[in-house]
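Study this:
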Amino acid sequence: MLPKEYFDDPLTEGVAFGAFEHVLDNRFTLLKLTVGYGKTVIAMQVAKLIRSRTT
């Protein structure tokens, strides 16, 4: 389980939004993130943005 602070971090939200903008034009994408950056958190944030834009 991840602490809520991981999801509310402005840097994480910014990276997720940038990834989301990139994903909009590409069906598949590769994100180059540093080791231990929290790719799971980024993926969840991007999925949340995609869901909010499509509903």
